[in-house]
Design goal:
The complex is a heterodimer. By secondary structure, chain A is mainly β. Chain A is built from no helices and eleven strands. In chain A, 0% of the residues lie in helices and 53% in strands. The mean pLDDT of chain A is 92. Chain B is globular, with a radius of gyration of 14 Å. Chain B is built from no helices and eleven strands. The chains are: A mainly beta, B mainly beta.
Chain lengths: 114, 114
């Protein structure tokens, strides 16, 4: 149980394009999902909290107009990196909040912006 | 401000022996602590958690100890196996408006030698 999937697992795009990443909880409903970013040799940094049916809340320093989050249903949250630039290249990981404040993580999406 | 710290970047242990991974925190509002295991280019996998009302939680080979007065927690793996080799992250969560949000430590690379 508690499986979270992400799609795509990796993506290469040109600078200036937008990229959408999907996060799905496969066997449980999640009213809350989280989006993280991990740069090489660093820890996971929380970007935003995605709540089903309401606006996402962003951490300090994260541009909400650049990283668009939509939590359309209890099993799906999407992160769109708009007008991506090389500095946005990173490993993006989502998680879904299960019972007892435990987060279950997706496998991650590697984004490379050329 | 690093609220969750894992001061040992790496740990090397012989197969069959005990692995002890340590984690310190500074925020007294944290009331739930988790350990995750992570392989490169994958999302973290939940291992074990502990609420602040307890000082020990055990699940198979994994035991987490919490010392609230010292703001310290540790993960014991006994016996260690080569398949345990990975990066281990401790994470902490507070209640209230921060419900479910995790703050991660920097991670400790565990290597278990056959």
């Amino acid at each position: 149980g508690a499986v979270v999937s992400q799609h795509p697992s990796w993506v290469i795009c040109k600078s200036g394009t937008s990229v959408k990443i999907e996060c799905r909880s496969l066997d449980f409903q999640a009213t809350t999902m989280f989006w993280y970013r991990q740069f090489p040799k660093q820890s996971l940094m929380l970007m935003a909290t995605s709540n089903e049916g309401s606006k996402a809340t962003y951490e300090q320093g994260v541009e909400k107009d650049k990283f668009l989050i939509n939590h359309a249903s209890l099993t799906l949250s999407t992160l769109t990196v708009t007008s991506a630039h090389p500095e946005d290249s990173s490993f993006y990981i989502c998680s879904a909040l299960g019972g007892a404040k435990t987060q279950y993580f997706g496998p991650g999406t590697r984004l490379l912006v050329l | 401000d690093q609220q969750v710290k894992q001061n040992s970047p790496s740990l090397s242990v012989q197969e069959g022996r005990i692995s002890i991974l340590n984690c310190d925190y500074t925020n007294s509002m944290f009331d739930y602590f988790l350990w995750y295991k992570k392989y490169p280019a994958e999302g973290p996998t939940f291992l074990i958690s502990i609420s602040s009302i307890k000082d020990k939680n055990e699940d198979g080979r994994f035991t987490v100890f919490l010392n609230k007065s010292a703001k310290h927690l540790s993960l014991h793996i006994v016996p260690s196996q080569p398949g345990d080799s990975a990066v281990y992250f401790c994470a902490a969560s507070a209640g209230g408006t921060s419900y479910g949000k995790l703050t991660f430590g920097q991670g400790t690379i565990l290597t278990v030698h056959p």
